[in-house]
Amino acid sequence: MAPSDTKADNAVSSEENTQNGEPAETGFSRLLRRRSPGSRYHARNPSVGSLDRIFDTRAEPQAHRLPVVQKSMTSEDKHYANNSYGVAELRDGFFDAVFLQPEEVDFQDLMKQAELTLPYAFRKKDPLSVRNFLPKQWHEVKGVVRRVTTTRAGIRLLKSFLSFFIAFVLCLISPVQARLGRYSYVMVISTILNHSGRTLGAQVDGTILTILGTATGLGWGAFGLWVSTATGTARVGYGGILAVFLFLYIFAIACLRSYYIRTYQAVICAGIAISYTCLAEVSGTEVSWSKLLAYGIPWVLGQAISLVVCFAVVPDAGARPLAVALHQTFDVMLDGLGLTRSESLRTRRRLTQTFVSISQAYRDLVIDFSITLFDPKDVLALRNLIQGVIRALLSLHSETRLLDRPEDEPLNRLRRDRSAFDEFVVEIDEKDHFPISDEERKLVKFVAGSLAEPTEKLILSMKSALQGCDAVLMEMCGHRQYLGPPENVSDDVPGALVKLRRRIIAFSNCQDNVLASDTLPPNYAESPEVVKLFAYCRPVHQAATAIEALLVKVNEMQQRKTKHLKFHPPSYPFWKTLHRSNAQVRHDRGGVTAGSYFKSFSDIAVIIQKIKSRDFQPLPRQNDKSTEKDHDTSYATMTADELEDEWSMRKNHVRHQIWGLLHRLQGFETRFGLKTAAITSLLSIPAWLPQNHGWWDGYEVWWGVVMAWLIMGPRTGGNVQDLFTRSLCAVLGSLWAGLSYAAGDGNPYVIAVFAVIFMLPMIYRYTLSTHPRSGLVGCISFTVVSLAEVAAQGRPSPATVAATHGVAMVVGVVASIIVNWVLWPFVARHDLRKAVAAMMFYCSIVYRSIVSRYVYYEEGDEPTKEDIQASEILEGRLREGFGLTRHEIRLRAPFDPLPYSALIDACERFFEYIVTARQASLFYHPHFIRDNTEFAADLLGHRRDAIATILTNLYVLSGALRADRKVPKYLPSAAATRKQLLDRMRVLEAELAASGRLSADEKTEGKKWAQIYSHSYNESLTGCVEQLEELEKFTKAIVGEQGFDCAFTDEVWPTD
To answer: How would residue 110 be classed by pLDDT, with cut points 50, 70 and 90?
Structure first.
């Protein structure tokens, strides 16, 4: 643009620059016309020095330009011109970032604050020191003995050990051992891998999967053996052919194992079968087909033994695990009602974990068949209602609960004839609060004295209602005498329901009477302590309503109770079933948290992608027919439709499917398959060399390959402690097996006694402890070595058999862990960092969606019931993500968990504030946001600044954390923009009140509840800002802060 044109444009007056009577507007000013009472558009005033003319590069003929007319400037215009240089910013689509000087942070104080959020397991110092290690081990031994002798764990251990011992004793009997052959111990291995300590449905499911897996492994191996000996040329290179068959099969089933958790049992057994077929007693001249029967028949017999023991000894058809989960859930909810400041963090974490656990209990019930008195549909409804109660209890923030302070004498005498109710005595002397006046103290005394008694009675009714529900459900499943509650707890659910409804009505009437009282001034919101009392009552009422709905459902189930058990087939969706497994399989496979962790994050990512991938389209301006015609009103907000499992048509194109497949092949599943196939193939090389057949087959060294296959994990790489523990278990199992044979010179009774002594703790470690893989290593090493010695009958010596087998298994264990360390390692601290970064980013998306859907929506586009349910579904998934993130910390290197723990805690609190804001926004409807377009236009820029600043900070922090890069020193101040918005809202509220536009009903409603919901809503968004500052502090503590020490120093900056 020529300079002369620019000057001419700058001088054009908006009053005289007209064409055909209409303003000749250009650039942004066309979009920002001010709305008058009779006009169609609204925006802020366009400036004479607008940026429109600076960015307007359209070339117009000179003939169409109007002559420049000079206008005399007033004193106000001159002041504006002298101070703004004729330039003003119209921020349509942009936001003003306010940068303030960062406050100085004391790192030591920050870490002391972080220690309060640290899980108990990480608060212990020097766990491997002799002073701490030995007392810890003794304490754990006593805990194991107590658990086995006093709980159901003893029965599960008995069932698991009994199936093993029956098979083991059969292998010690000479005729049976001779009939089954050299590999009779496969029957015992079969009973260990699919032990009997399961529910009936899980046992049948495991039996089918393990047999199918074994059959496919033997079949593929047999095919490989046939190909390797089909021709003379193939016989020469039989080792290479078998290596290819082994590599391809291990790669395929390893990928399948990491893709679909459900196939774990089948895949594990298939890997053992293919290793046996391709590595044991192979030759390039002929194939011994009988060895397939020598493996398959003992395997099927072992599964039959486990199945019979599971059905015959204290059978469990799925009712007890559900009963235990329900009983524990009600215990946690009762603790949530009795929340105190000293235990608030611990109890809230338990509530969040219970939110996840109750969903898992329902999945465990319907993923396999069950025989119970509960209909799975009723359990599903019960789960949803319980989660609703937990969601309401989580709204009872400890900060809003008002505790008893003995020094507050005037407040301690609120209830003269009875003990003070702790929940309604205000902490007015905290350092964050200003001293209150006598008038406000009287208001606090009046409100607390009026609400304390009905609220106390309501909470007591809620507690008795939950206890009654627990009693009824435990009686229905027949486990009350074993689990509780005590007999003195009433199971009169109808009576508890009537009592609770009466208390809810009395509580609501009391609130209305207090709000309608003349003692309470219209502007009581200026007394924050008074508002806090009402704000605490709101979630109490919501929790009572949720418990009422739960009571109704339990009462219905009690009335429809059947006297006989019913068989319920699996009802969980098939494609979802592939990604889930029952409780015992989750435990036995190891890495319980990791498996659910990454699947849950994948589910969250899919939902988030459906929200954030939508193109943003601003709402059309009113009466703008040209834009309303083709406008998509579903704009970047979270609605119910977005959570449906339906893909758009464009995603079903072949190209997209091919891209998705190729992209998925780059994931960790393929990498795990490659490194698993690589390590098993490398360890198997001696099996295909003729000169090594003697010692390889004689000492059964192929068990080292099997051990490597068992220890390899898709998402758990292991650490030094795992390496030491698993190797030690392999050595102990081999050594104890050698001693068992040598002690009695092969006497089967002595070997059986040694088996009882060693295998009881090892089976407990495998089936019940938190270290299943090391227990599995010990069980297999003892079984294989002891029965191999029995089959060898002292030739070679027991010491030689134990040493060779033990070394082979130790090599397999060490090789698998080292490969996991070196090749595409799973480093939990890195995944933890990336997971927390992802949760921060997800919080930003949820914040954006909730604000746009629940707060700043257009008239007539209020959130529907389906939208609220969709939000609760997503919030439940995010709660699961937070719960799993907190537990997924496996360490291999020096690692400071303090900032990570504090960062997760701050992220959780940020999310809780978002949820509270959403709940409050359902009741808080400020009139000036939607009813008054002028006020809405005035607030537009401030609202945008407040939201955009939070989104920008979350995006920057999550990106820096994920990339492990330093955070910029200066970030936009969310507190400053939030304060600007609140200040402007107060001004507009005052103007609206003074204008007389509010009706009498609106004024009455404002006096009643609007001030309370306004407080909760504004406090929640302000809490988001406070937690955002905490996120910034702890993110900088993890990745560092980027100051002026980077490459761009003052020396390389351009100077005058």
So the answer is: confident
